[in-house]
């Protein structure tokens, strides 16, 4: 009995350590790992393509006026499928390698963007004005509007 236990210990020692010292030494994620969703707000034009394809419906778009679009991303519901990254034609969305996303506050996984949009005179759909100067010319750009009691 004791001999078999000693044999088991010796076999275990020969194999070396096979466990990780997590969380003291977090393992880097593998290339292509679909972790945290990040948004480059400078590149995002508010087209809504990501919201159209999100299977978890965690990207919500609200047009509060013809010139202001709000995109809310409730990433606590995200299933990390990567569809939003695939469809974004502006390279604004990425799933990086961060996987330690546990939190006690849902607000840590919430992103809100307020975009000032131009409106096409023919089809009425929103687009982002191409230059900062054009954005200043958009009616309503400088005007505060109420959204659920908030001033934006
Ligand atoms: S698809 Fe890209 S550019 Fe369009 S709203 Fe989503 S993040 Fe922004
Ligand atoms: S990774 Fe998938 S579930 Fe998460 S926001 Fe993008 S499309 Fe939605």
Outline the secondary-structure elements:
Elements: H1 2-15, E1 37-39, H2 49-53, E2 59-65, E3 68-74, H3 83-87, E4 93-95, E5 110-116, E6 118-119, E7 126-127, H4 132-137, E8 146-147, E9 150-151
Bound molecules: iron/sulfur cluster (2 copies).
Q: In a few lines, what is going on in this structure?
A:
The protein has 152 residues and is α+β, with helices and mostly antiparallel strands. The protein has 4 helices and 9 strands, in the order H-E-H-E-E-H-E-E-E-E-H-E-E. The chain has a single domain, classed as Alpha-Beta Plaits (2-Layer Sandwich), CATH 3.30.70.
What does this entry look like structurally?
By secondary structure, the chain is of the alpha+beta class. It has a single domain (2-141), classed as Alpha-Beta Plaits, CATH 3.30.70. The chain has 4 helices and 9 strands. The protein has helices at residues 2-15, 49-53, 83-87, 132-137; strands at 37-39, 59-65, 68-74, 93-95, 110-116, 118-119, 126-127, 146-147, 150-151. A 3-stranded antiparallel sheet has the order 2-3-5. Strands 1-4 form a two-stranded antiparallel ribbon. A two-stranded antiparallel sheet has the order 6-7. A hairpin with a 2-residue loop joins β8 (146-147) and β9 (150-151). It starts with a helix and ends with a strand. Bound molecules: iron/sulfur cluster (2 copies). One iron/sulfur cluster binds at residues 37, 53-56, 58-59, 78-84. One iron/sulfur cluster is lined by residues 39, 44-50, 87-88, 90, 92-93.
Keywords:
single chain; 152 residues; alpha+beta; Alpha-Beta Plaits; 3-stranded antiparallel sheet; two-stranded antiparallel ribbon; 4 helices; 23% strand; rod-shaped; binds iron/sulfur cluster
């Amino acid at each position: 009995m004791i001999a078999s236990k000693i044999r088991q210990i010796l076999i275990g020692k020969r194999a070396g350590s096979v466990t990780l010292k997590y969380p003291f030494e977090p393992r880097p994620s593998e290339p292509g790992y679909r972790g945290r969703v990040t948004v480059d707000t400078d590149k995002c034009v508010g087209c809504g393509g990501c919201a159209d394809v999100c299977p978890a419906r965690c990207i919500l778009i609200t047009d509060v006026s013809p010139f202001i679009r709000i995109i809310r991303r409730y990433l606590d519901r995200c299933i990390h499928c990567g569809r939003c990254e695939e469809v974004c034609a502006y390279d604004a969305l990425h799933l990086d390698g961060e996987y330690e996303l546990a939190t006690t506050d849902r607000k840590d996984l919430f992103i809100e963007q307020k975009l000032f949009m131009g409106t096409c005179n023919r089809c009425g759909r929103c687009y982002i004005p191409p230059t900062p100067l054009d954005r200043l010319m958009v009616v309503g750009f400088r005007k505060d509007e109420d959204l659920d009691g908030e001033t934006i």
